[in-house]
Specification:
alpha/beta, Elongation Factor Tu (Ef-tu), domain 3, Rossmann fold, 6-stranded antiparallel β-sheet
């Protein structure tokens, strides 16, 4: 859906409670931002997103610029505080194709410069397709890169901190340029290792072979290293698959899963079955 199709007519006023850089200084800047939304009418589920409205003026006369961000907290709120939720923001820049000039990303730079006490406008929540299964005996196969880890953080907090009855397998494949860029799994913030002792949970990391040369994250090798289990899970009717991150991840996953399946035709048929049964969910961003 185009962002212009979202209803932004009734925004909520949120106050920045805390900001925390969760990557080391010599890597890309990624900020974990906790917002206080003291409104009884604002409720959300894991896997949903909020829209952040950046005040203008902007190009084409727009009064606000809107960008979607996945919620990184469970439905019980950040730290079990239902008045708070968190988002994960990477400070972005883009190159003008005509002039070659480098420009800051509007929303990401706006958010990364907010301080505790600042007020921002948000809308939403949006999204009903990227939700964790209700049945605790179901399996979850999660594949994400970069800030695509945010909804998976919310999933894990919900099923292990709040449900506490999860029986199905939970497998997380997470990609980053380097170990230091592994959000919520580095020296700055090690949040996800809290779940490594859970009997049903395993996490696997995929890195760029040459991050200094901007080589792409080798997610394919990480998935292929566990091909037998991945394919067995996909064929299990109680497995739900989630893929989140940059849009190019979809093509990469189609390629590696076609190889694991034995052919592109077999994978396409399997994927269509997953989609029909609502067991295949994606969340991509540019």
């Amino acid at each position: 859906m185009n962002l212009t199709e979202y209803d932004i007519s009734r925004p909520y006023h949120a106050v920045v409670a805390r900001t925390e850089r969760i990557t080391p200084e010599n890597t890309d800047e990624v900020i974990h931002i906790t917002l206080n939304i003291d409104s009884a009418t604002f409720n959300y589920l894991e896997g949903q997103s909020i829209g952040v409205l950046v005040p203008g003026p902007h190009s084409f006369g727009n009064t606000h610029h809107m960008r979607l961000y996945s919620i990184a907290s469970s439905r019980q709120g950040e730290g079990q505080n239902m008045s708070e939720l968190s988002i994960c923001v990477r400070r972005c820049f883009y190159i003008d194709e005509v002039s070659g000039e480098r420009h800051p990303g509007v929303a990401s730079n706006y958010l990364c410069e907010r301080k505790a006490g600042d007020e921002i406008l948000i809308v939403g929540p949006y999204g009903r397709q990227f939700l964790a299964p209700r049945d605790p005996s179901c399996n979850m196969l999660m594949i994400g890169v970069g800030t695509g880890i945010a909804p998976f953080r919310a999933f894990l907090k919900h099923i292990y901190n709040e449900r506490k009855d999860w029986q199905g397998k939970v497998r997380l494949f997470y990609g980053a340029n380097s170990g230091m860029d592994s959000l919520y799994q580095n020296d700055k913030n090690d949040d996800l290792t809290l779940y490594y002792d859970e009997e049903t949970f395993e996490a696997f990391q995929a890195l760029s072979p040459r991050p200094h040369l901007d080589d792409p994250i080798d997610m394919a090798s990480a998935v292929k290293a566990h091909a037998e289990e991945v394919w067995a899970m996909i064929q299990n009717e109680k497995t739900y698959v989630y893929v989140a991150g940059l849009a190019r991840l979809e093509e990469q996953m189609d390629e590696v899963l076609s190889e694991i399946a034995g052919s592109e035709e077999v994978w396409e048929a399997t994927k269509q079955e997953l989609i029909t049964q609502r067991r295949w969910s994606t969340l991509f961003y540019a």
